[in-house]
Amino acid sequence: MGQGYPEEYLEESRDYIAGLLIATEIKHSGTDQKNPMELEELMTRLINHEAQTRLSKEGVERLDAYAYSGMEWLVDTIPKPEALATFLVAFCDELQRTKIHRSEN
After folding, report:
1. Is the whole model's pTM more than 0.70, yes or no?
2. Which of 33, 34, 46, 49 has the greatest number of beta carbons closer than 10 A?
């Protein structure tokens, strides 16, 4: 993730991004949301309130892994666009296909 978030995301979004990471990790790690000890342990591993991003080293690594996975999905799924509009149409179409596929399973 480099040195941190872009300036426009720093103040308003860093806590929101940390919260989304925690919510996602709860789902993926099988953490029991009703168990305060499990939640605290997960949050302690992922959060560092003194860091600019509010994330610990492990939190940054997990966020980077999600970002990398998303980029791999984009590269593998959507042909290289000639223009932004072409990309946005292809991206929205693929999101719809993914949403429909998930609802069928």
Report:
1. yes
2. 46
CA distance 73 to 92: 14
The owner of tokens 């949050």 is 43
Cα 61 to Cα 45: distance, rounded to the nearest angstrom: 11
11 lies in some domain? yes
- Mean local confidence (pLDDT), 60-83: 91
Question: Is residue 16 assigned to a domain?
Answer: yes
| pLDDT confidence band for 41 (50 / 70 / 90) | very high
* Spatial distance between the Cα atoms of 80 and 74, rounded to a whole number of angstroms: 9
Is residue 43 one of the residues assigned to a domain?
yes
Q: What is the pLDDT of residue 66?
A: 93
**Rounded Cα gap, residues 105 and 101, in angstroms:** 7
Supply φ then ψ for residue 41, to 5 degrees. -65, -45
User: Is 85 inside a domain boundary?
Assistant: no
Number of folded domains in the chain?
1
Higher per-residue confidence, 13 vs 42:
42
Q: What is the DSSP letter of 37?
A: H
